Amino acid sequence: MKDTVDPDISLPLTELIVCPQCDAVFHLKEPETGEKAVCQRCHTVLIAPRRQAGLKIIAIALATFILIIGATFFPFLTIDAAGNKNSVSVFDSALAFSSGPMVLLALATAGLIMVVPLVRAMLTLYVLVPIVLDLPPARYAMQAFRFSQALQPWSMAEIFALGCAVALVKIADLATVGFGPAFWMFGGLVVLLVAQESFMCRWSVWNSLEHPKKS
Length: 215
What we know:
Elements: E1 16-18, E2 25-27, E3 37-38, E4 45-47, H1 53-73, E5 75-81, E6 84-89, H2 90-95, H3 103-132, H4 141-151, H5 157-171, E7 176-179, H6 181-199, H7 202-210
Antiparallel strand pairs: 1-2, 3-4, 5-6, 5-7
Helix pairs in contact: 1-3, 1-6, 3-4, 3-5
């Protein structure tokens, strides 16, 4: 935990930390590995260092990259209705809107479901691999990490999976629905994205980028 700082007291910026949710200012005291520093006002986790978190996040990012590629092109669902059987992938679904004025919807669908999570996984690897290997940060690593965090609200692979689950409930009585490999890949992808956020300590990443180890 940290103590709230009196606004009249002047301290170096390196000794302060600001809550990203409520803007409360605290005197920085880095917790031990496995402990958490929590905002006293809104209870947002400010610092949560974990042992070997970088390696775990890199492994998750690699798995996310592979799953997104597979989930995009492998069959997502097979539908059997009135003797007609058809399978569809996420890529096919996006292409279904690729003609006429609906092309913008196709681009948005492909971007939010596939491109954004893929870009975030690549940026995570670009930023964290040098840090974990005790190398100087990659060029423009700060900008890459900032861009990755800005893309987080637009990464909607898990929203897509939830929407599909709701839709399946509605069409279950109208047709026989089977789950393709991509469906299970998306299920695994949702779990990995949640796990990545639980391991990610943004303060630790920023601190490593601002104070790199000498190679």
